[in-house]
Every structure is written in structure tokens, then in C-alpha cells.
Design goal:
It is a single chain. The longest helix has 16 residues. The chain is of the alpha+beta class. α4 packs antiparallel against α5. The protein is built from five helices and seven strands. The protein has two domains: 107 residues, no CATH class; 36 residues, no CATH class. It has a three-stranded antiparallel sheet with strand order 3-4-5. The protein has a two-stranded antiparallel sheet with strand order 1-2. The chain has a two-stranded antiparallel sheet with strand order 6-7.
Length: 147
């Protein structure tokens, strides 16, 4: 028996990962944007739990902490209807570090560096809640101009 490199579950010696985790990994095989070691590291870091009845692994979003699962179909995800489906995301544009992210967060973040993304979301939240009297345009411009 071997131990899954993602969830540490025992499985057959024929693969690196158990069948539930391997379903997610297979989605990214052949995808030139991601190397398999980076995919495996991101999944291992975000692993939450397994639904053994449905043979599915669940992972935690890097940005929200929400636990969900990856889409097991090979189709384009809609931003709204598939908001809580997990995807892989480069933590920062151009970096090799991958993280697990909710689809909606990944689409919102785009190529914005993760530290600036958090500041933007906080600023927008304060603006929408009207908790603080801020000049939204100037505040956002300052965030984008930071080194």
C-alpha cells in the first residue's frame, strides 16, 4: 500500500494519489500552465477532507477558507452559477506558487497580486458598508500605485 501525496490516505501502489485526489489531478495533467509538482503541492496545502461515499476530495480556498470541491467535468465554469467550484490560481501573476481558490474569487482577482487584491476587497467592503468616509477612487488608485 502507498500513502496519497495529497490526503495521506492509503491506496494502491499504482499511483501517487488516491482515486479521489487523482480525479482532481487528472484535470490538470497536460495543462501547460501548471507543473504537476506545483499542482500536488497546492492541493496538499489546501486539503480539507474526503467524502468517501462519493469518492470526492474537498479543499479549502486560500482566500476565503471556504471548503468546496473541484468541478469534475471538463467545461468552462460560469462566474456566477459556478462561484463555489474550486480552481487553481497563481497566487501572484508570473509566480509559480499555485493556490486553490473559489472560482468567483479567482475570476475577481484576475492578475492582481494577492496582497493588493486583499486591500481592494477591504476597501470596496468599507465603501459598500459606508463604514468609513473614503474617496473610493483615490483609495483604489493608491493601492494600484503601490510598489
Amino acid at each position: 500500500m502507498a500513502t496519497c501525496d495529497i490526503c495521506d490516505e492509503q491506496h494502491s501502489d499504482t499511483t501517487q494519489s488516491c482515486s479521489a485526489c487523482n480525479k482532481v489531478i487528472k484535470k490538470y495533467q497536460g495543462d501547460t500552465r501548471y507543473s504537476m509538482p506545483e499542482v500536488r503541492t497546492a492541493l496538499n496545502h489546501a486539503y480539507s477532507h474526503k467524502d468517501t461515499d462519493n469518492n470526492e476530495s474537498y479543499f479549502e480556498c486560500e482566500y476565503t477558507g471556504i471548503v468546496s470541491k473541484f468541478n469534475n467535468k471538463n467545461e468552462t465554469l460560469g462566474t456566477y452559477k459556478d462561484a463555489f467550484i474550486l480552481t487553481l490560481d497563481h497566487k501572484d501573476s508570473g509566480s509559480k506558487e499555485l493556490v486553490v481558490s473559489l472560482n468567483i474569487i479567482n475570476k475577481m482577482k484576475g492578475d492582481i497580486p494577492s496582497d493588493k487584491f486583499k486591500k481592494i476587497v477591504i476597501t470596496l467592503g468599507e465603501h459598500f458598508k459606508k463604514e468609513r468616509d473614503i474617496n473610493i477612487e483615490n483609495t483604489l488608485k493608491q493601492i494600484f500605485e503601490e510598489p
